[in-house]
Amino acid sequence: MKVLVTGGAGYIGAVVVSQLAAAGHDVLVYDNLSKGHRESLPPAVSLVVGDVGDRPILAAAFAQHRPEAVLHFAAWIEAGESMQEPAKFFRNNTANALTLLETMLAHNVHRFVFSSTAALYGDPERIPIRESDKLQPTNPYGESKLMVEQMLAWFHRIHGLSTASLRYFNAAGATATLGEHHQPETHLIPIILQVAAGQRSHISIFGDDYDTPDGSCVRDYIHVSDLASAHLLALAALEESPQPTHLIYNLGNGQGFSVRQVIECARRVTGHPIPAKVEPRRPGDPATLVASSAKIRAELHWQPQFPDLEEIIRSAWLHLQR
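Predicted structure:
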C-alpha cells in the first residue's frame, strides 16, 4: 500500500516507517524535522520536509505520492509544556490535524491511523483503563488529542473515513538501530539512562506523595517495536474492512511501574547508582495510568514481544552506548 506518514522521522514514527518499509509498503515521510531526524529513515524511503499546517506543501506531497492511507504522528507531546503554552498544542496538534484531514478528503484518501494518547483519560476512575472509560484530560496536550479523536468520529460518520486511534501509554526502549533522541530529553527512561551514562547528575522524581504504593507516579511502559507493530495491524484492519470503520485501541502492557521502580530497574541494568532527587509535583500529572489492551489483542491479535520492563530498559541502554 502507498502510505504517507507525518512525523515519520521522529522516535515512534521512524520505527513504524521501518516496519512499513520492511513489510513492502511504499512509504513517503512528511516531517518538518523540528524533532525528527533524517538519518532515522531507511534509505529507500522518501522524505518531504514540511509542516502539516502548510497546506500547499502538504497538498503537493499528496499529489506526488497519491497515498492510499495516512499515519499521523506529527504533534507536540510534552504534557508539562502544554500547561505553560496551551495555544502551541491546540494549533499544532488539533488545527493542523484538521488541515491534514481536509487535504486527505480533497485527494480521496479515506484511511487514517492516528497517534493518540493515554492522556485522554486524565485521572482514571478505574485501573486498568478500558477504551470505553471516561475521557477527562488533565492537560492541554491530552485535550488537543481528544479534539482530534472527536473530529475523526464525525469525519467517519459524515465522510466515510476509516480511522484507527491508538492510545499510547508510555513508549520506551529502542530497536537495533533506532532510539529516543529528543532535545531536550523529557522522557523518564532516557533521562535515567543519561544519569547512568554520566550526562546528568541525578534523576528528578516529580512528587512522592501520590496515592500509589511508593508515592511516585505509576505508568505502563510499552516497547516502541510493539507499539509499531500495532500500527501495521491497524492499517491492515482498515484496508481489509469492507465498510468504513472507526477503531479505538489502548496500547500498553497492562502492568504499572512507579518512577522509583523504574529507577531501581535501571540501576540493575546499568550497574550505576543513579542518584535521585524528589521535586515538587508537575501540574497535570495523573497518579496512575495503566492500560487494558484486551480489545486490540482480541480483535487484531496484537501480542507484545517485549513486555518485560528490564528488557525495555536494556534495549534503550544498549542504544545509548552505541
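Summary: The domain at 172-219+253-291+306-321 is CATH 3.90.25.10 (UDP-galactose 4-epimerase; domain 1).
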